[in-house]
């Protein structure tokens, strides 16, 4: 088993006033040659957007873009004609494919919205752009794994990604343990502690710490405190 650890306070940080963002991987003005990506996982941004503010309309292509709200409400609009709002318990994906423009805005005029912006390199390039979002039952991840993203063409739970990737959430009670089994032994998993603390593959992690795990079929998660944890299984051949 190989592991690579990223402490919360080692992430890149940019505070633009309206946007306070932490970057696990090289992004914008933050560059770390050891942290350009983890396999197909290219961007993991932890964004706080002030009330009424947001990202204006801008283009993307050939990238799988996932948004996971942690607090508040995020308004989405895109050139495919989608206009919607996502909240905690929902997950959104946009396959940029041949090209799409979108904007993301805090729906609330006063309170911040907090969400994860995640980019994954696609399996197939230049596909037709697509959009999907889904509400997930928070009780469905209590002390067990809940798949929220899975590959196109599979019958697995979750919204569909143009990549052989699975995103999983768990809300794990203190002292509870789970064993994660990789869907593909050639993949790796980036584990991100949203809240609480846990022992992952024998290593202690706290809030917003991350751990990349590869060259294994399974690993153990044991919550030290009540914890919310995101697991992103991705191909490593990137």
UniProtKB/TrEMBL annotation:
Pfam families: Pirin, Pirin_C_2. Binds 1 Fe cation per subunit. The keyword Metal-binding applies. Residues 9-120 form the Pirin N-terminal domain. Its cofactor is Fe cation. Residues 148-234 form the Quercetin 2,3-dioxygenase C-terminal cupin domain. SUPFAM superfamilies: RmlC-like cupins (SSF51182). Fe cation binds at residues 58, 60, 102, 104. CDD domains: cupin_Yhhw_N. One of its GO terms (molecular function) is metal ion binding. Belongs to the pirin family. This is Pirin family protein. It comes from Lacihabitans soyangensis.
């Amino acid at each position: 088993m190989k592991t690579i650890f990223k402490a919360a306070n080692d992430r890149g940080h940019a505070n633009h006033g309206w946007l306070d963002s932490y970057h696990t991987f090289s992004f914008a003005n933050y560059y770390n040659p050891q942290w350009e990506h983890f396999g197909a996982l290219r961007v993991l941004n932890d964004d706080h957007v002030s009330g009424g503010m947001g990202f204006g309309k801008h283009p993307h292509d050939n990238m799988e873009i996932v948004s996971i709200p942690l607090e508040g409400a995020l308004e989405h609009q895109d050139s495919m004609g989608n206009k919607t709002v996502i909240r905690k318990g929902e997950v959104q994906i946009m396959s940029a494919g041949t090209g799409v423009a979108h904007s993301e805005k805090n729906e609330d005029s006063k309170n911040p919205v907090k969400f994860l912006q995640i980019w994954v390199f696609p399996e197939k390039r230049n596909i037709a752009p697509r959009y999907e979002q889904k509400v997930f039952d928070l009780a469905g991840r209590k002390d067990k794994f809940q798949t929220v993203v899975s590959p196109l063409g599979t019958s697995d739970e979750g919204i569909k990604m143009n990549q052989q990737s699975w995103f999983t959430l768990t809300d794990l009670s203190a002292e509870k343990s789970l064993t994660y089994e990789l869907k593909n032994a050639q993949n790796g998993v980036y584990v991100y502690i949203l809240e609480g603390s846990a022992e992952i593959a024998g290593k202690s992690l706290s809030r917003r710490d991350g751990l990349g795990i590869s060259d294994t079929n399974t690993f153990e998660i044991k919550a030290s405190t009540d914890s919310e944890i995101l697991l992103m299984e991705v191909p490593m051949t990137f």
